[in-house]
Amino acid sequence: MLNGLQGKSQVTVNNLRCEYLDNPLGIDEARPRFTWQLTSEKSGMSQTAYQLSVGRDQQEVAGGQGNSWKSDIVESSVIPAVYEGPELLPFTRYFWSVRVLNDEGQWSDWSQPAFFETGIMYPSGWKGSWISDGNGFDGNSIQVKQAPYFRKEFRAGKA
């Protein structure tokens, strides 16, 4: 049913967003949402289905061959789409692209890839230690030194 006609699509996909941001950095969402806009010279053109491609290689994603996840064809006119692939790696740049089936049964070309970068992602990724001069820190609690006082005695008199 969704094979589509072989003619050239009159719709292009642009303004790709992940979590409603343009190429976001440091997202911690395990299942990010993707949105896009359609442009067409024909008034009232809409999508009836879409397919997403996600991967770490920009050229492969641009051709719809993402190595992380390629969605099935999703019959939906609703945006956003949600990532349903394997677990995303922390601190990793992923590219993504989408193509849509218009209401005349024609597939668009794959969009120009956009990207998102994951952040820490999971609590186990939070590792660190206190920044200090090494004095007053016993590994479990901070021993605060009193601040030095700078003072000078003076008499306030009439001028």
How would you describe what is shown here?
With 159 residues, the chain is mainly β. It contains 1 helix and 7 strands, in the order βββαββββ. The protein has one domain (11-122): Immunoglobulin-like (Sandwich), CATH 2.60.40. Helices cover 3% and strands 27% of the residues. The strands form 2 sheets. Strands 4-3-6-7 form a 4-stranded antiparallel sheet. A 3-stranded antiparallel sheet has the order 1-2-5, with no helix packed on it. The protein is elongated.
Keywords:
single chain; 159 residues; mainly beta; Immunoglobulin-like; 4-stranded antiparallel β-sheet; 3-stranded antiparallel β-sheet; elongated; disordered N terminus
